[in-house]
Batch of 3 targets.
Target 1
Amino acid sequence: MPTLPRRRLHGLHHRLGAQPGEQEGHGSRRCAHPAVDFLHQFPSLRLISGQPHHVPGHLGQARSPMKIRSALSALALPCVLACAGPLESPAFESSSTASIGDAVQNGDCVTQQVSAVAPGSGAGYPAPTAFPVNAGWEYEVTVQGTYFANDGLYADARYSSRFNGPWQDTPAHYESSGPTLLDLQFWDGAASAFVSPNWGAFSSSHTYSTRWTAASGQLRVRINDDYAGNNSGSLSVTVCHVLDHPSCPGDVQGPTLILHDSSAMTLECGLETWADPGAEAWDVACTPLEVHRYNAGSDASGPGPQTFAEGTYPVQYIAWNSVGTTVSAIRSVQVDDRRPPVLTLKGPANVTHTCGSPWVDPGVEAMDACYGDVTPAVRKTGEVNGWAAGTYQVVYEVTDSGGNSATPVTRTVQVARCPWE
């Protein structure tokens, strides 16, 4: 069976049943042993074995610390996972191959060339190209290429609202030896499950992309071109399993909880907002468990991290199964002021003052993203003698409560034209 390159998203999962520190394939580690206590120590991550060890990060980077609380049960052993972060778009590498007949999963991608086929008169259908997928999983479909016309005929782009429905004509389009007009269609399982917007005509070399959650075990793709005999080319269709968030490890033997993003986060006071990355939890056989949040901002137990006040805010996640076995994790959110205030002169930086009267300082304004108006904390050095000709400099400085100092600003005052000179 032919094989095609696949791009794999590397991830980390923890499994039960091995000795502490035992490696389980690339980027994984097992956890076991019933002696579990509530762990308060940062920054080391301690799994339920009670033995401290470093957790490898995503693609080889170190993981952030996590604070864990585990409640034991004689029936199941919970395990808490922390995922490297932040998790954004999947990081792929071309390292493995897979049969086209395999289901696209585990962050892999499969690419196939799809050629347009003329449906003929009436309700003929080109044969679809199949991509096996897993129902309930999120996928991204990308189509790229140009299909060229070799004639000056009218071509009817056609579409179908459902896989086995009749073809319907769209208005005719004139071709002049350029890219042809094609119709690209996707079906997910049942005839009534029409996937994605109909991208319609491929009028030039473009890349089209969309995401969807699979409804069944097969994605089918076809392209219609009424004048396929006169045209040439094919389109590259790539189907990727999206892993924006961690997936169930697959061998769960008790409640397991995974934090999305890092377990220790830092937000810039006054500039960044708190958005809870959330968590996922499963029981045996990857049965999803509801994750309860505390002090996440979306629950009644607390307002969540306040990004206009420096401090450390714990956000807790707890899940439990039907027999009461629980697992939990705490995300530590540090709101820190690392930006200095901004000092702005009021009035010009260079001033000429007529000798014989006191000079009035127009002052400065100092604003801080975290603490707001800090003008009262401004320090001024230098004085101006309005009765003595000369050049004077006044320097303004300010430091906020976080210890961040603004760039000093200077005003130059020229005292001139004294009556007695």
Target 2
Amino acid sequence: AIPWYERAVLYAHRINNERSRKSVLLTTMRNLGLAQKHSSYLLEAQKTYQAALQMDPSNMRVIHNQEVFEEEIKMWTGSSSKLAPGLLATNIRVELITAKR
């Protein structure tokens, strides 16, 4: 079986929008780094990407959640060592677009 992070990278390369693609790749790398320290976040990240991969990439829009990203940066650069549950999983919000006819 292909690891979730490799599949996330493969999925990212199918995204036409460069900004969205970079966002997925950067978040994947960040999740990998943090997952090594916090195993519970690996599970959260895994769930997020598996859900994304099961959807049809042609119908997919990946939106970077800027507020969550900024919150995450504050938490890692600030004095607080606690991380909000599911923070990494919500860093990228996946939305399915239905075609307008």
Target 3
Amino acid sequence: MLPVLHFESSYLPRVRRRPMKQPVKVRIMLPMSIRCNTCGSHICQGTKFKSRKEEVVGETYLGNQRFRFYFTCTNCSAVLAIKTQPQHLDCEVESGATRVVENGQRKREAEEMGDVMKSRTYDLNREIDILPALDDMNSMKENLLRTVVQFPSLTDKEIGGRG
């Protein structure tokens, strides 16, 4: 006869739940380059951090909740905070650092904010400049296809065959 096994609940591990008010710990990748205000060190775009994520109370955009991420500087361990901007598909630096904007980004942003007609006229002028060069290339290609290379007719004796 087999022994009877009894269930002992005291041997089960306890499951600890995170309290509802504490921020969630997540691992994020920095979406832009920033400079720490405390030590002045640069933190490049794409650097991974363990951060605390919390919802920004009262701020939504078309039903999308905004989030705030807290993480520390890699050099001096100062607390830095960024906040999401769903309307621009971007993030803004909230405290502890400043965003580093490159010259190319500034120029692109200025062009995007500028007149749409300027970009259209630029594209049209570029097309007008390219069209004659394309016509020349097409005519050269047609001339090459029309020319037939004629070799002088050779007899079998000249080729070295039987004859």
